[in-house]
Amino acid sequence: MCANQFSPALSQVLGSEARCDLFAVLVERRGEWLTAAEWCDQAGVSRSGFHRDHKSLFLGFDLVALRDGGSDASTHPTYSLADTEQADLLADLHYALEDELENTGPLLSAALDGFVR
User: Is 102 exposed, middle or buried (0-12, 13-18, 19+ CB in 10 A)?
Assistant: First the structure.
């Protein structure tokens, strides 16, 4: 499920919809290590924007774990959801909002259809 469907709730916590999308990718791919390119492509976020605006926040708040690429220039650093309390709490919020959206989605859709008519 796309994070932007429950913005602005999660974006108020993370500060932007792009960060919501980035975080949603890590939550949905928990336990996997992604390069910045893979992560950004899946989230629909530009790599330059990621490096300029988002990477330091994710790392600074220990939401993301970084695995260095090593001395081999062809190996890029990879990122994964951190194994921290704050990452777990934010992932729980992500799932709670997702559940809420799934449960109220049909109700909201019916209400919207009625309003349009």
Answer: exposed
**CATH architecture of structural domain 8-116:** Orthogonal Bundle (1.10)
Predicted TM-score of the model (pTM):
0.74
Q: Token pair for residue 88? A: 């777990």
Per-residue pLDDT of the chain (117 residues; tens, 9 = 90+): 444 454 456 666 677 888 988 999 999 999 999 999 999 999 999 999 999 999 999 999 999 999 987 666 567 899 999 999 999 988 888 888 777 766 665 555 555 455 444
**Domain spans of the chain, in order of start:** 8-116
